Amino acid sequence: MSTTPQQKERIIVPGPAGFHPPSAAQLGVMLPDPGQGLMYGILEPKEELVIEEMAKKMLTSPNATLFPGPLVLWAWNEHAVQKAKAVLEIAAQIPDVLIIPMPDYRPKYPKIDPEEMINPNHPNLTIWGNKIEACIFIGVHCHYANLTLKMIRAGTNCCTMAICAEQGHEDAMLTIRDSDTAKLQRVAQIFKRVREQMGIKVQADGENVRFTGTQSKVHGGKTHTNPLSFTPRATDLGSAAMFGHKAEHMKSEA
Amino acid sequence: MSEALESEQKTNPQGDPITSVAAPKSDAKKDPHAEAKKQKVVTPEYMFLEAPRTKEFITGSEAAKEAVRRSNVDISIAYPITPQSETMQLIGVLYGEGYVKEYYRGEEEYGVMSAIAGGSRAGVRCFTATAGPGTLRGIEPIASWPGHRLPAVCMFTCRVVNAPLAIQPDNIEVSYLLNCGMIVFHAENQQDMFDFILAGFTISEKNDVTLPVGVCCDGFFVTHARGYVRMQDRGIKLPPREAWRGAVPVLDAENPPARLSRDAPVQKSNFMAYNIHAVWQQEVWAAVERSRKYIDKYMGGLCTAENMENADAVIIASGSAAAQSREAVRLCAEKGMKVGLIKVRSLRPFPTHELRDLCKNTKLIVIPEFNYVGWLAKEVATAIYGHSKAKIIAGPHVYGGQSMPVELIVDEVESGLTGKKSTNVPLSAIMGTDVDQAAMGHFMRSI
Asked: SS3 helix, strand, coil % of chain B, rounded to 5?
């Protein structure tokens, strides 16, 4: 069983794919090797082409959203902080992009606020609630990313993308692997190039990240913000660095 | 008694130094962990593909011990049960020598398997072993390992589980493990036991796998018998587990209460959306699928094929039945029958595509097994249905401690090829297009 470049028919496409469709692995989709990516379930030997397709989707789809996970949301160490900055550099290239966090993996009961966060136990609610048609997951532990991607493909029309620090995600429509800080920065550069080629401009003041309703309330009613105005940093108290975690411990961490 | 005799190193029957007894005064300064401390970490690629090996004549239990010696194991938890007890006793020797960092005896198998879950969730490399009734007693926590995404290696030295209880060889317990979502290997001999355990740790901990590995063997035939095992130098070991690279976060032991259950509310059906459990199960089995490439890389494939070219018939077997089948192939050749052998090494994932390819032109398949139910035959028939027109003989079967006379297998090959009636396999256990419908009808009317 293998996913070959010769296969022309797209396998993993925006849904709704069905009540409970087979997983990508059941459909024979295999994860890419280093330097490669997956484009709609088909092996793409050049990951740069996958990143370009990601950019096009994020720049043209309604309510494009970045979903940062715990591995870039929390300042585990300096490496995680650097990756968070790189994620904001990607956001800076997508006009009107939403950023909705996945801070942890616990089911949120009695009621999820889909504007505030996404959760792997019911990610479809966040997609539906915000009418998101393209999204990128970064910094989510692979098991939970896979759960999320399967549910979104089953029940929504969203084009899912996963920028993974490990081997990638076959249930995402577009995925790349081994994404360290340098690769995230390269993704931001490619997004910038594609955006400019498409003639799409960002706000002159850089305020192109659109707040959700909840975020807007927190920020005094502002509707947009400049992602590069945030300066993530490792906190002194309670951070993993306090317990001896160093950047080299998590070099490939998403 | 002379001073020289007093200072003589005490050893167990396997020749390992016994470190649990007080050392003689003259050895007081000798560090029992000295050799373990000198072990060098090597990459899995070097360990499995490049490192030179030397051959030793050892039992399956000793092969397991030598695999664990080279596996950089953090914790091993024991509970005795025949025929596994010797294996975990030998792991205890490794603990005494410093090759295993923690080791203790659990309360019983449920406690052992639960503690293995805790160790794995905490981020350390875990090993245990059990057998027969122990497997079934521990099956609830064992079946929860894959869903919790817990890498670990557990050795199952199969024996009778049914009443009336017996300690004899019978691999029916494998059928209980096949649908847990764990990776399951079946070792034919001592060499497999060594290789599968060592590779099991590496495969188990791959990020895109992150699943437990069960290494099964047929008790006594493998555990207590000796065979030649080619092993890497004991001075090298695998890299330690990098738990932070797993598909799930490790247990946060610094912020109590630490829960062993993963995402507890998901396990409460009255709170959860059913979708999450459905995709969770899909993800576990997707991870089983992803392990294929690592099994190919580190173990040389999910199955092996011998003597297949222009074969009149093929025997498909796993575990000790593969060894018996190899001899049957030789006897068949003496009788002028050209018979191939496919040895299934990995039961989960199952070599579905490999079997479809290997069996596409086969006319007869014989599947000998050491159990009553014929779980391997069912797996094979399911895998190749529609891809092969072969007649499948689900047998011969032996169980309850019986050995498998090679002649039984030869008889089935012969009867399958000539149409001679089998004396050991009922018609109901013969599948495929060449089944004698009249005989089958007679059989059905007679039952």
From this structure: 40, 20, 40
